[in-house]
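Notes, p. 3: input format for complexes.
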Amino acid sequence: MPDIVVIATHADWASLTRQLAAGDNAVSVVQARLAAGVAAARQAVAEGARVLISRGVTCGMIAAALPQVPLVEVKFTGFDLLRALLEAQAAGGPVAIVDRQEVLTGLAAIEEILGVQDKARKIAIDDYRRYRAGVDQAVRAGAACIIGNQAVVDEAEAHGLRGILLRSGPEGIRHALELSRQMLTIQRMEEANARRIETIINSVDYGIIAVDNAGAVTALNREARRLLTPAHGAPDNHPFLTKLRRYGRLGERLTGSIERLEDGREVVINYLPITVGDETAGAVATLQELRQFQDIERRTRQELARRGRLARHTFLELEETAAPAMRTVIDEARRFAEVDATVLIQGETGVGKEYFAHAIHAASPRRYGPFVAVNCAAIPATVLESELFGYAEGAFTGAKKGGKVGLFEQAHGGTIFLDEIGEMAEELQARLLRVLQEHEIYRIGDDRVIPVDIRVIAATNRDLRAMVAAGRFREDLYYRLDVLTLEVPPLRARKQDIPLFVRKFIDEFNQKYRRNVRGMDDEGLALLAAYDWPGNIRELHNVVGRLMALAAGPVITAAEVRQCLERRLSPADRPAAPGMKAAEAVAIRDALARANGNKQQAARLLGIGRSTLWRKLREMGIESDSSK
Ligand SMILES: Nc1ncnc2c1ncn2[C@@H]1O[C@H](COP(=O)(O)OP(=O)(O)OP(=O)(O)O)[C@@H](O)[C@H]1O
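Output follows (628 residues plus adenosine-5'-triphosphate):
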């Protein structure tokens, strides 16, 4: 069925319309009047007509019967009136026009333009069904000729008078056709828009439902239907809508509301008013199952953690040095970065070995792959094995369902940094050697071979060679690791860098503590230079942190530095003399007690690295059972 259907009430109108619309496949003409006209309109709509055209009584009846269908009424034009008046004039005698007030008002304006105001008497009927009364009135007024619609004409002729049909001429029909075509175009645009919006709102995985000011649902996507339908048959009946309508009326928003649906599912709902200009035009709600929300959060956290497996430091940072000894090491490290071989970084605690590992990875061809750092001293041996190699489901009691991907696998395509390699248990040393030789791993409890493409960077503050000699480190592993060796100098060998680090750390703590310390006086810097820094850069970092927390003025003074250095017990960071071991143990136990057993915090209190604390604890016979 064509999109535009004209319900023409007369044969001549129907044929005129057919002529005017010839060649336009979108238009079809049906000739029918009154009840038959309504039936024809209904049928046309059922067959797909999208805009209807009609006229007069029939048009009014169609509008009442099909209020939701766009309907264009053919209006009378000046030409129609002129044609009727000319016909009446030819017949002779007084002329009356009987029609609805609305039509007469339109005609009056036309008459005025044409200058024929008093050519015909106008008799208004408030309803087409009252045409008889109108014609009677015209008869009483002495009309010889009555102009009106078909019913009026029939009635006039029944009275023996001349009836003249007020016909729609080509101008009015053309206008109605044009209007209908425009309506059709707008309708199509609106439909395309609605389809676009529907596609968009259906493409998201949360529910969207909107209501207008009258409370009618104006948007409802698939997910909202899924969430709201089961309990209530149709989402329109859902009690949740009452709430949404209320938010629309109040123009208020509520986000993150957790509500329970009747079937027990919990959903996170955001209610938002829809405002157009200054007016509230309704409300929209987004709904998401809490479970789904949690899933997304978990996935996001995993993703963030994965991204966390990136190198955070580069050579640019390391190059901020004035020490020739450092420059040599950096040059070596840069060259090592390009070679895809195992690197062993040696140096005292806190000299920045981990920084080198990050920088080497970041400058290596593997830089777009993961960088996984593991502190072998911070994790108990048994846990370390499963952390590194992963395990199969059911490998041991307490093993996670689905097993676990080990760090070697996670580092695939990138670099794994094994810090404090000297602390690695013997059995693990053997397994690590296999990884280095075979480039493959087995998960615990699984005999499937998993090839891994990783580069190993190891670090230690121990003398590995001495450990080999003492039989505490596997010789074969030592030689595997000792391919490209870097020796990072201690801070006392690069004292010219102390002012640089002080500046850098002051900036850092200014930000962290929201302070505005400008610097340190020269005497203070000289005191720092005279100190031997057993804890190296980490110790300097802690000292500056403490000075910053205590600094009274805009510049850190020598007196403050002196006091801080004197107060530094720092037993744990120094290679303890035998007599000092007991005091060191007391300090450690004290710090642990103050930190409620939290080792990270205790390490901070002692001003030593976490791994150093782990090592000391082990030396003291206190086995570490968590990585807190
Ligand atoms: N180039 C640097 N710039 C700024 N800070 C640095 C730099 N190098 C080291 N540090 C500081 O020293 C701390 C220790 O560095 P890092 O962890 O790399 O040392 P490490 O030699 O690996 O120590 P450990 O052997 O105890 O693990 C860092 O947390 C940082 O505060």
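Residues 572-579 have pLDDT under 50 and may be disordered.
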